[in-house]
Amino acid sequence: MDTTVGLRERKKAETRQAVHEAAMRLTVELGLDNVTVEAISDAANISRRTFSNYFAGKEDALLYGEEQRIWSLLKEFRERPAEETTWQALVNAARSLHEEIGEPNREWALQTRLAKQHPSVLARQMANHVRVEREFAQAIAVRDGEEPGAPRSRVLAAAFLMGLRIAANMWIEGQQSGDAPLRTLLDIAEEVLAEVARPFL
């Protein structure tokens, strides 16, 4: 039974990833306004009904990869050793995830930039940011033994996630410019997060 459930979940994950990649590819080629759910479904070799089982719309399909990375980061943070300070645990979680999934490629950077130029994608992304920030603040409060919604946990969560967003944008800009040698996303993130943490040290 466990094997069957594991295979089923892996198949679902593979389907979600295929739909995400199809949505990104078509958006870059045609522009989001010219991409339909039907076209994404065809490109991913699934039915329109199957698409609806996985995503509410094409914006959700586009942002799937980003959401998976951030939820994996939250899981990494929750599993960090208790002897680390909260900020150390956050930064080390980012390092650990980078080691696990590796450096994004240049194509991902270009696709992400193009996809996020669309207002509907940006609006969906902002809604995701609010939810993610709330979850990180809650995890920080639990780790530090604070009440849910405590100011410190909310500030740390917001500062950390904003630092990651700044680093990601800087990395994407570097990919666009083609400057050499290119710095890794982790290198940029560690520099930005060090600047973010400076007032709290």
Topology:
Elements: H1 2-30, H2 37-43, H3 48-54, H4 58-78, H5 86-101, H6 106-115, H7 119-144, H8 151-177, H9 185-197
In oligomeric terms, what are we looking at?
single chain
CATH C-level label: Mainly Alpha
Low-pLDDT parts are none
Q: Radius of gyration in whole Å, from Cα?
A: 18 Å
Strand share of the residues? under 5%
Q: Tell me, rounded to a whole number, the average pLDDT.
A: 86
What would you give as the CATH superfamily?
Tetracycline Repressor, domain 2
- Would you give the CATH topology? Tetracycline Repressor, domain 2
Task: Describe the global form.
Answer: globular
- The CATH architecture can be named as Orthogonal Bundle
Q: N-to-C SSE series?
A: HHHHHHHHH
Largest sheet: none
Number of strands: 0
The separation of the N and C termini measures: 51 Å
Return the domain count: 1
Question: What is the structural class?
Answer: mainly alpha
Helix content: over 70%
How many helices? 9
Structure write-up:
Helices cover 78% and strands 0% of the residues. It has helices at 2-30, 37-43, 48-54, 58-78, 86-101, 106-115, 119-144, 151-177, 185-197. α4 packs parallel to α7 (119-144), α7 (119-144) crosses α8 and α8 (151-177) packs antiparallel against α9.
List the keywords.
single chain, 201 residues, mainly alpha, Tetracycline Repressor, domain 2, 0% strand, globular
